[in-house]
Each structure stands twice: as structure tokens, then as C-alpha cells.
Write a structure and sequence with these properties.
The complex is a heterotrimer of chains A (384), B (337) and C (465).
Chain A: H1 3-8, H2 10-38, H3 42-47, E1 57-64, E2 72-74, E3 77-83, E4 91-96, E5 105-106, E6 110-112, E7 118-121, E8 126-131, E9 142-149, H4 156-163, H5 167-198, H6 204-214, H7 220-237, H8 244-268, H9 272-280, H10 285-296, H11 298-314, H12 317-322, H13 332-342, H14 347-367, H15 369-383
Antiparallel strand pairs in A: 1-9, 2-3, 3-8, 4-5, 4-9, 6-7, 7-8
Helix pairs in contact in A: 2-14, 4-14, 5-8, 5-11, 6-8, 8-11, 9-10, 11-14, 11-15, 13-14
Chain B: H1 2-33, E1 37-38, E2 44-45, H2 48-81, H3 95-102, H4 104-135, H5 141-149, H6 156-166, H7 179-186, H8 200-226, H9 230-238, H10 243-254, H11 256-271, H12 275-280, H13 290-299, H14 305-336
Antiparallel strand pairs in B: 1-2
Helix pairs in contact in B: 1-2, 3-14, 4-5, 4-8, 4-11, 5-8, 8-11, 9-10, 13-14
Chain C: H1 2-24, H2 29-47, E1 64-69, H3 73-90, E2 93-98, H4 102-111, E3 118-121, H5 124-132, H6 141-150, H7 154-160, E4 162-164, E5 170-172, E6 174-181, E7 184-187, H8 189-195, H9 203-215, H10 233-246, H11 249-256, H12 265-278, H13 288-293, E8 312-314, E9 334-337, H14 342-348, E10 351-361, H15 366-375, H16 378-385, H17 405-416, E11 419-422, H18 424-427, H19 430-445, H20 450-463
Parallel strand pairs in C: 1-2, 1-3, 10-11
Antiparallel strand pairs in C: 3-10, 4-5, 6-10, 7-8, 7-9
Helix pairs in contact in C: 3-16, 6-7, 10-12, 10-19, 19-20
The chains are: A alpha+beta (384), B mainly alpha (337), C alpha/beta (465).
Amino acid sequence: MSTSKRIRLTPGQLMVHLGLLLLVILWILPTVGLLVSSFRDKDQLAATGWWTALSTSVQNGQGRTGTSEQMVETGGKFVIAGNLLDDSKRTILTFNTNFRDLTAYKAGEVLTFKDQSQIRVEADGSYRWESEQPIEEKRGKRIFFVAESPPTFTLDNYVEVLTSEGIGQSFLNTFVVTIPATVIPITIAAFAAYAFAWMRFPGRQFLFVVVVGLLVVPLQMSLIPLLRMYNNIGALLDVSAKSYVGIWLAHTGFGLPLAIYLLRNYIRSLPRDIIESARMDGASHFQTFTRVVVPLSVPALASFTIFQFLWVWNDLLVALVFLGKGDDQIVLTSKMRELLGSRGDNWEILTSSAFISIIVPLVVFFALQRYFVRGLVAGSVKGG
Amino acid sequence: MLDQVLDATIAVIIGVSSCLLYFWGTNLLLETLVRDKQTANGQIESRDELRHAIRPWLFVLPALSLLFTYLVYPVFETVWLSFHDFTGERWVGWSNYTWALANPEFLQSIGNNFLWLLVVPSLSVVFGLIVAVLADRVWWGTIAKSLIFMPMAISFVGASVIWKFVYDFRGPGSDQIGILNAIVVGLGGEPQAWITIPFWNNFFLMVILVWIQTGFAMVIFSAALRGVPKETLEAAQIDGASELKIFFLIMIPQIMSTIIVVWTTITIIVLKIFDIVLAMTNGQWETEVLANLMFDWMFRGGGDSGRGSTIAVFIMLAVIPIMAWNIRKFREEEQGR
Amino acid sequence: MSMIKQLTTKGVFLAGTALQSLKKSTTNRLMNTMLAALATVALSSVAHAGGHSAYKGPDLSGQTVTIAGPWLTADEESFEAVTAAFEKATGAKIEYAGSDSFEQQIVIDIKAGSPPNLAAFPQPGLAANMAAIDGLVPLGDDTAAWVRDNYAAGQSWVDLGTYADKSGKDQFYGFFYNVNVKSLVWYVPENFEAGGYEIPKTMEDLIALSDQIVKDGGTPWCIGLGSGDATGWPATDWVEDIMLRTQTPDVYDGWVANSIKFNDPRVINAIETFGQFAKNNDYVEGGTRAVGATDFRDSPQGLFSVPPKCYMHRQASFIPAFFPEGVQVGTDADFFYFPPFASKASQLGNPVLGGGTLLAMTKDSPATREFIRFLQHPMSHEIWMARAGFLTPHKGVNLDKYSSEILRKQGEILLNATTFRFDGSDLMPGAIGAGSFWSQMVFYVSGASAQKVADNIQNSWDSIK
């Protein structure tokens, strides 16, 4: 494109840039919100929107004074003193004992009670309650205040979910499910794909058509019979019906049609000469496959590996049906769903655990995007 | 912690190596058992033929038996179960089907699934096309595509958390922490509990899937558009055709088959949509869909395999035309080879 | 619940350190003697609590009673403290086995013909199923009569423990031991004082108070139905509580068993009464649309915000676990009994909704019978009362034994009860009580009419018959 042309098209080009920019912002905004929120202090996260994360937030709060037990007598006066804030992050702006009018007294001012005793609350939360007579206060007076806190970012949320919420364990469990459930189907599919592509055996064409048909069979058609079958086997052998082996095999079964289809198409497209010259040199099919075909098929194997890895890592349905919900088996997606149910609006927990659950797929994705795209294109442009 | 990592590693190694062991072991077995024989008169009798007949089966047998156990047999079993009661033992004829067709929840799911089928594939395709075309025209197109493609890597549950946060609702007067309500309030509106507003909440759930699938559509279209002959485009430009005209009259027809493929792929995903509905509403507020309803019946009150299977059969029925079309297309391609 | 448990654990810990320092201070004999004297007083007060004499049983040396139940960890320790007292008094041996899969295990054991002597069922439905296959041994009319006379709302407890055996004959099987209450309204006492509000004694007062709070510019209620997959269940407790306050227990039982249809006008009326609270934009924090969208665990937070977003929250006794950090139950928050309608009080009295575990005999033996008699002695209740997580309707116990003021107040609610009913949704078939009842209540607060949702629930009930 020549320079003159570019200048001539400026208004149009500008529209293109702006339009695309708008779409990109729209697309990443939700994820950015999640990421920013997961690093915010949990009180601030619950009180203000993540887009205000960098500004000072103003929140209402309350504290309780000491009781008569903490009262001391100094200089003829009875005094209860202490600090209303349990942290040093906040600064009190205004305070009152009545929550209906929080801005009645500025920090440093003195509030006089009906009994003529006086309390002064400083910006740092320290207070001094003085009276001529002994103060009668059994449970401590509530002081309401408006305080501001500077933006705070923390790793606390991550520490919490990784330790006490059990996300760390389910992170491991997810790996235990995902790695074999990726490697096993690709191994099995590669051998089958080679057979379908270059070996002769009766029924080859028919069987492959079946594989093509199975590409689109919904998972839902398999769940109930398999659940029953697993339960029966479990009862028969007196073992748990929910096991890692069970889910590896299930993911393998569900992933095989696409794996065989993609790999067979790729292996079939390898030059016939290469296969045949290897055979001429006296290599068996097993040797041809392992020494010639596999090295040549690395791109196809890689794209399916990524595909299957993401699919298994992100799967919820299969995990719900074939794995238990105990700490030793629950995977991240399943755990996330439990947290959505049990931790409701605890966004500090939800955002940080969601980020932990998506970080691995994101890294895999950005590192190997090229292969992933190639696999997708091969899978859908060719066949569907 | 170290224990757990160790256990996990051992489990992974056992799982993976036993698979590899099969192929290596059966090959070894074949080589030793079916060895070339030396006959009595000293001649070597080649048994290549026999090995050739057996080996393909060793290669495809694991795949075929898994496919049969996990996909072929269950399909027939599900159909069989759909004619049985909740225990799967007593034949009940069509009664699960008549129950389904009279059940308001089921009918609502059918309606919602239709809505999803109309909206999600079309919006994903439209946005995918727009991004694919726009991104080809700017220097930072690759980055833009990467970012829009990113949601593809996120699980449906993760995406649900992300969007639940977007839709978060606080009562009027409180600070909104969900960005959608913050915008609405900023513009002077009333905050809404988006996912609880019947009918419209379906669209708020669909947005999540569109958000994920647009990246997929875009990547495929991007590849297909690169295949449109440059000469055709340049010729049209010389003829003075406008950008829009080129897009609609040349590009779209050129990649039409790709559009259909993308459309059907997303259609299949939509038919099976489950995680998003489960995580966002669990079918409440009239957002039920078939896959979630099926899951519900599979476990609800001890599980009803009859009704669960019946709902699965309905999902299957919707997929069969696509399956037939796939097979036909594959046959044509094979003959063309 | 867990908060209460933590508090008690702390108490035990403190007692432990006191004992250690006691051992160390051997030099100070005076101190030593004083503490020892105090300890003796404390021990004897356990033995002679409430003026009744300590339990004395027959000599059962050499006999063993096996018990299976759902109690684990702290509950298991508490129950073992109870059984230890029995072992000490009789010489019998008690073997308790707690399991988190108790409900599956007991069915297997009974069907296999190898049950324990006693089973502690967490809800009556399963016990009734076991009675129907003659898996339980009747406790006899004497025990039933004892429960009727000595438990507050005694007839209710007898009814809840009475099931049909295989031949269809009603027999008394279930002895309730360790119960909980749901009909509680939580509030912040100081917010009530600030507004000059009194604790309402009748439902009419409660509604008047709600109106008064609205008039003063506040919002009376926080109601949240959200609970992930189980969204909607908090509304079922409301409806059940209102059913008990507007209809006789017979109607409630008929409704739970569906002999009275779900779309009966009396049930619809209860749903609509709930609607008076939940579907009134002025009454609920965030307005009606927030009711379905707010998680039940977050819902009580509004009580404690500044200024308060609401003044009252109806929920069972477990809810303090979800109060904000640092809230002291008793000081910062308290509860009152969800009151009955004054207009119906003479007829319905003080009904209480709740749950509880019942002991049923699965294998007869003299020692087992004696253990049931032991459970009728106040001591067997007071030992657990002094720990945590235990309430009892036994009228003979000394309320001072409760380990906290909060538990004591809940215990009083039980003792003042004239009717006790089990959480109805737990007794309905799963597809209703853990299915359509939940989801249709969500549908109701999001706009549907009570008639419509009641029809829908009845339809789903018909479809599983």
C-alpha cells in the first residue's frame, strides 16, 4: 500500500482503527476487571468498582469504645481511651454516634454526650472519652465514621484461596486429570490414524465413516449409560466408581473421534514416497510409524495436544459425572462452581481462584497459539 | 504438599506409561510369536502376510474399543433407557416422551435452546467476520486478534465468573461493583439484577458464549479470507467498487462454505450448552436449556435415567442432520481424491 | 454453628491452662485448696443439676450397646461424653461409630441383617422407610407417653417419631435427642435501641414494626434466596414457618404429605404472606429484585453495615457463621422468636420449625432399653448442653447448663413451643423439596403469582407419583 493511498484513506482508516479498538476493549474489559479485582484488598473490592482501584476509596465504618473496665482515673477525670481502627490503612474523616448523620463531627472535634462526658476522635482512629464522673458503659459505645483508605493491592486473596479454600489441591488434581487425558488419546489416536491412512484391512472405509459420524455425537448421549456402567463396575469390584482412571478413559473416548480424524487427514497427506521408501528399506509398519511418521506429524500432534489439553482442563461436565467432589479428586472447574455456590459474593475469593484456573490455559494458549490456530483451521475448514 | 505432588506424578506416569506399554508390548509380542519359521528342510517360511493381517488391528483396536464403549454403545443404551422408568428396569413405552412434551420446563428449554441457536452462531459469525476484516487492515491486527481470541482458552465456568462479576447487582443507592450496573447508574438509570429478568436474561447468558466463540470464528475467517485471490480483489478495486461492496459481493461469497462450517460448529456447541447456564442461573428465572435440564434429571432426587435419557435423545435428534451432512461431505471428498 | 463451636473450644482451652497453672503452684497450698474446693462444687453441680438426682442405672457389666450415627468430630466427642456417664453408672460398654455416609451405611446394615443396637437418624424420612421394612424395634407406649409428658410440645415429638411398620400399624420408634430451631429473627439490639423499636411479640406487631421502620426511612428486612444450585431454599423456610402460624399442624402435615394439595388456598395464602415481606419493595433491602439475586450468606451483612441496610433477618441458628468478622453474637447481634399471629394464637399457640436427630432401636437388648431410659434422665441432656451444638425440648433440664446465652435462649424457644414441626421441604420428595419448591419460589419473587407457582409445584408433584 503506497503512502499516498494511506493518507487519502485516513478517515476510513481511522474508523477501522477505532472500531477495532472498541471491539478489543469490549472483549478484554471483563477479564481485566477480574484480574485487577483479584489483587485488591477485599474490603475495597466489596465496596467500590474495580475501575476505581487506583483512587482513594471512602467507606463508612464503625468501631466500639472500651468499657468501664478499661476506664482509668487521671487528673481527677475518668478516661477511656483506645483506637477504633484495627488497621493503620484508614484515615477517619468524620464521625458520630448516630448512624443517620455520619458527617456531624470532623476528625479531631469533640462530641458531647447527654451526660456531659466528651469524646474526641482523631483521624488515626484514636479516641479519648473523658468525664467528671465514672463512665457507666458495659459493652462499649458504637462510634460510626467515614474513613478513607488509599488504594491497596495485595496477594492475600491468592494466599487465601491456595491454602484455606483448597484451590491449590484442585490445581494439582486438574493436572492429574489433564496430562494423561491428553497423552493417552493422542497416542491411541496416532496409531489408529496411521492404520486408517496407510494400512490395509477389511472394513477400513466403513469404520472411518463411523468415526466421522461420531465427531458430533453429543456427550449427553453417553453420560447416563456410562454412569450406570461405572457404578456397576465399582460395585462389582468393590472400588469407588469415581476414579482418575475412569475419567482418563472417558476423556480419551470422547476426544478420540476428533483426534483420529485430524491426524488421519494429516498423515494421509504426507508424501506417499516417504512412507513407501521406508517400507522398501525393510522397516515394519511399527518402525515406519515411530521413526518416520511421528516426527513428520509433529505439527498435527501439537495442535491436537493443545486442543485436548484445553478441552480437558476447561471441562466441567465430565468431571462432575466421573469424579468425586472430595478434596482428593475435585478439579478446578468443579471447585469454581462449588465456590460460586458457597462463597456467593465473596468476590476476592472468586476472582483470585478464577484467575488461577485460567492462568494455565492462557499460558499454553499464548505460547502455542500458532499450533492451536492451525489445528482449528484444519479441523473446521476441511471437515467440520 | 510434596506428598500430593508425588502422588500426582506417580498417577500420571502410571497412566501414560501403561498406554505406551500396550503398543510397544503388543508389537514385541507379534514379532516374537509370529516369527518367520524355519521348516524341516531348512527353508525359511515368511509369515509377513500374517503379521500384515494382524498388525492393523493391534493399531486400531484400543481406539475402536474405546469408541465403542464410550460413544457407540451408550448412544443405543440411552435410546433404550428413554423407554424405561427411573430405575432403567421397567419398560414404560413412550411415556417419558409424552411427559417431556407436556412438561413446561422441557418446553421452555426447547424454546430457550432455539433462541440460543438463533443468536449465538449468528452474532459470533458477524463479530468474527468484522474483526477478521478489520484486523487485516491495521498494523496491530495480530495483537488485536490475539486478545479477541483469548477467551477461547478460558473455561465456561471461568467465563461465567468473569461475567457474573460484570453483571453484579447491588441495591439502588449502594456503590455498584459490577461494571454494567455502574454504567447504567452513571447514565442515570436504575440498577438491575440482570440475570434474574426473565427472557432478557437469556441474552445476558448468550453474551458469554458469543464472547468466547467470536475468537474461533475470527481465526477461521481470517485464514479463509487470506485464501481469497488477490487478483479478484484488486480487479474490483480498479473497477471502483466500494469497500462494502467488495466485502458483500466478493469476500462473503468466496468464503461462504467456511461460514457454513463455522456456523454448524458453533451450532453443535450451542446445542450442548451446559456449564454457563449451570454456573450462572442453574436454569432458574426461566433460563433452562436442554443439557442442563438433562443433568438435573440425571441426579435430581436420586436420578431418573429414563427422563434424563429422553432429554438427551432430543439433543441427539437435533444433531443428526449435521451428522448426516458431515458424512456425505466426507464421502464426496474421499471420492474426489 | 462453627462460631459457637470455636467459642467453646476456646473455653476448654482456657480451662486447660488454668489446670496447668494449678499443678505448678504447689507452693501455694491455700490457693490450691481453694481451687480444689471450687472444682468440687463445679463437679457436684453437674451431678445434681437442677435439683434432680444423678442417674443411677442397674448393673449392666459385660453388656455392650452399639450405636451408629452422623455425629462427627466435636459432636462425636460430646456424645461420647454422654455415653461415658452411662458406662460409669451401669458398667455397660457403649461403642459409637460416626460416619459421614451414615444414611447409606445404615440401610445396607439393616438390609444385611447386621444393624447396631441404636441408630441416630438425622431426619425422620429415612427412619420411616426403615420402619416400613420392619428394620426398627418399637420403643413401646411407655416411652411414647414419657415423651408426650416430658418434652415441650410433646405430642409433636411423639408424632414425629411414630411410623407405620410393615403391616401398616403405627408404632412409636423415634426418640428425639439433639434438635435445632429455625424460626429465628436476627437483629442488632443497638440499632433497635437507636430507633426506639421493641421486640415484637406477635406477627401483627412484627408487621407494624416493619411499617414503622419504613416510615422512619429505613428498610426492615434483608432477604436473600441465592444459594448456587439450591437457590430458593430460604424461601421454603419462610413458607413453612408461616404455614405453622396460620394453619393447624394437621394441615401442615397434610401439605407435607401432599394429601393437601400444594395449590390449596391455605398454602397459597402462606406463600402470599411471605410475599407481603419479600415482594414489598419498601420492606426488603435492594427491593424485590434483590431477593432472588442476593446470596443467603451475604444477606445478613446488611444488618451490620453503616448505616444499617436493614434491621431484621429471618434465618436458622447456623447463620452467625456468616456474620462479618468480629461480630459478637449476644452483643452485636441477637435474635428473637419469629412470632405467631395474635389473631390465631389461642388456636395455634407457639409453633416452632426445626430439625433434629432421633435415636431408633435397630436391635433390641436390655442394655439398649436401659440406654433409652438414660436418655430420659436430664443428666444425659445436660452433659451435651454444657458443650455446644445441642438443644433439647426436655422440660426437666436446668437451663443454666447451656454453654452460652444464645443457646439458652434457643432452648427456651423450644420449651415454650406448643407445636414442633420438621422442616417440610426436607420431608417432601427430593424432586419437590429440593427441586421445584425451590425454583418456583424464585419464580414467585421474580414476579409470578402465588397461584401460578403453587400450580406448577403441584404439577411436578403429580408427575412423580
